[in-house]
């Protein structure tokens, strides 16, 4: 039985599955602007709390610096790629390995949010 | 774009993609795409030319010539075809062919700077080795000149001297070369003149009774050509020195070397502007003149990147390498290059993947400069 949809964001576990089933996607989550986790699906061994806090911090900085209403960014590091996107219900974020299908992940994020 | 390619490589976009790869230094990827595309579209001449160029850049000159020659019939009027054939033959040391192709390039486009430069430098190169030849010749002559041995054979001297003296007489020397004086002959002149005493002694060298006649004749020839052209080599040296001075003067400033890849990036329709800043947020170079608040943006971009970098360190995810920030009216693509940040501001519909491919070359240059 699928979980009840989040009334604010429209993002739920079923939709998270669409992302986590993509190879090399490490985790998906939704956090408040303060960085508290609303919902997350992560591979074992990865800290969703830390990742969520980081997503909130980056989004906050982007909004503050560039005066954007709804921030959205893709951040590449040496090993991973982070997607952060502000939605009605909170900050949606995805973490995947560097060699994941970034295009497909992006399309799915846009579809979900 | 790669996905697009795999779906429709029959649409001939592979050549464009390969060209982009080549511009970014991804030579093997370009060759692979072109070979694959040409298997499906063997008559696509442009792709052959690009493949030839790719092989040339890779250093596989023979394969480059092979591909370019195959395409030559259909691409006789192609500027690039002729230019790269010129480059290839030049690399192989076949200067005549190289010059022919450079000239063909200039016939197609008289403004082609690369062909002009190559042709000029080829002409200079074709002249300069003669200096070396002369020096070798002179060394050879000097080695042969051993006065002590000469004394041992007085008879030989007697026979040869008249010929030598004739050769040295200026009036007679002038008659012969006038019609025949070639640039090479000009070059040979001055060094011979510098040591007149040695010239006269030359015929005395190594003379054995049987060989008396032949050696002096061979050595007289360069002297005969001498008089007419005395000053020319000095002029050539001056020209070479001038060129060297020009080269020194034209040596680009560090950031000028990224001007070309930046210009290529700016030719993408969706790119609004580019700027380079330090990680501290200080502007290094601005290619987005329309915008007046560029220094502020630099500071903000640097702040965002530093914040993200710190966060990623905390997550042990490695340092930030790239960042795409999507706004409603524009997209900001940032690439880190050592202690610098290359920021490209584009329309929202721009393809960041393509931007990063173009940016790669610039990043390499910046890293080289900052190293």
- Count of helical stretches of chain A: 3
Instruction: List low-confidence stretches of chain A.
Output: 1-5
Structural class of chain A: alpha+beta
For the secondary structure, the number of strands of chain A is 5
Overall structural domain count of chain A: 1
Task: Tell me the strand order in the biggest sheet of chain B.
Answer: 2-1-5-4-3
Number of domains of chain B: 3
Major sheet details of chain A:
5 strands, antiparallel
Helical stretch tally of chain B:
20
**Beta strands of chain B, count:** 5
Beta-strand residue fraction of chain A: 25-35%
Q: Please give the share of residues in helix of chain A.
A: 25-40%
3D architecture notes:
The complex is a heterodimer of chains A (113) and B (371). Chain A is of the alpha+beta class. Chain A is 34% helix and 31% strand. Chain A has one domain: Dynein light chain 2a, cytoplasmic (Beta-Lactamase). Chain A contains three helices and five strands, in the order H-E-E-H-E-E-E-H. Chain A has a five-stranded antiparallel sheet with strand order 2-1-5-4-3, sandwiched between helices. The radius of gyration of chain B is 31 Å and the shape is elongated. A five-stranded antiparallel sheet of chain B has the order 2-1-5-4-3, sandwiched between helices. Chain B has three domains: 2-127, Tetratricopeptide repeat domain (Serine Threonine Protein Phosphatase 5, Tetratricopeptide repeat, Alpha Horseshoe), CATH 1.25.40.10; 129-235, no CATH class; 254-370, Beta-Lactamase (2-Layer Sandwich). Classes of the chains: A alpha+beta (113), B alpha+beta (371). At the A-B interface, helix 2 and strand 3 of A face helix 19 and strand 3 of B. Strand 3 (72-77) of chain A pairs antiparallel with strand 3 (320-326) of chain B, so a sheet runs across the interface.
């Amino acid at each position: 039985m699928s979980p009840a949809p989040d009334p604010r964001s429209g993002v739920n576990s079923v939709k998270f599955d669409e992302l986590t089933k993509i190879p090399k996607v490490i985790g998906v989550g939704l956090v408040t602007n303060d960085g508290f986790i609303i919902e997350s699906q992560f591979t074992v061994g990865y800290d969703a709390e830390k990742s969520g806090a980081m997503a909130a911090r980056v989004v906050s900085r982007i909004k503050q610096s560039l005066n954007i209403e709804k921030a959205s960014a893709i951040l590449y590091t040496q090993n991973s790629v982070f997607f952060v996107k502000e939605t009605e219900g909170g900050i949606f974020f995805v973490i995947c390995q560097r060699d994941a299908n970034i295009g497909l992940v992006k399309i799915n994020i846009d579809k979900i949010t | 774009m790669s996905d697009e390619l795999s779906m429709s490589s029959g649409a001939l976009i592979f050549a464009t993609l390969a060209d982009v790869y080549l511009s970014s230094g991804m030579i093997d990827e370009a060759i692979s795409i072109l070979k694959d595309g040409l298997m499906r579209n063997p008559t696509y001449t442009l792709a052959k030319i690009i493949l030839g160029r790719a092989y040339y850049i890779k250093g596989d000159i023979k394969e480059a010539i092979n591909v370019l020659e195959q395409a030559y019939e259909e691409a006789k009027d192609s500027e690039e075809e002729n230019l790269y054939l010129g480059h290839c033959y030049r690399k192989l040391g076949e200067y005549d062919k190289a010059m022919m192709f450079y000239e063909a390039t200039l016939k197609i486009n008289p403004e082609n700077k690369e062909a002009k430069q190559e042709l000029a430098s080829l002409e200079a190169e074709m002249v300069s080795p003669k200096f070396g030849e002369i020096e070798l010749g002179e060394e050879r002559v000097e080695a042969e000149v051993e006065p002590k041995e000469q004394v041992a054979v007085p008879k030989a001297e007697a026979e040869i001297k008249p010929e030598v003296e004739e050769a040295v007489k200026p009036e007679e020397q002038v008659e012969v070369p006038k019609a025949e004086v070639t640039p090479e002959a000009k070059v040979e002149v001055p060094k011979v003149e510098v040591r007149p005493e040695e010239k006269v002694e030359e015929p005395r060298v190594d003379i054995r009774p049987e060989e008396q006649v032949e050696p002096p004749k061979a050595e007289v020839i360069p002297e005969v050509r001498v008089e007419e052209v005395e000053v020319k080599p000095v002029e050539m040296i001056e020209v070479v020195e001038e060129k060297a001075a020009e080269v020194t003067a034209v040596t680009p400033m560090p950031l000028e070397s990224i001007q070309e890849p930046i210009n290529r990036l700016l030719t993408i329709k969706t790119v609004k502007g580019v700027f380079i800043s330090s990680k501290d947020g200080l502007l290094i170079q601005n290619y987005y003149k329309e915008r007046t608040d560029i220094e502020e943006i630099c500071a903000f971009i640097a702040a965002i990147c530093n914040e993200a970098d710190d966060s990623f360190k905390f997550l042990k995810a490695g340092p930030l390498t790239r960042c795409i920030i999507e706004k409603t009216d524009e997209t900001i693509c940032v690439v880190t290059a050592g202690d610098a940040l290359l920021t490209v501001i584009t329309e929202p519909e721009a393809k960041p993947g393509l931007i990063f491919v173009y940016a790669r070359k610039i990043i390499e240059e910046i890293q080289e400069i900052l190293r």
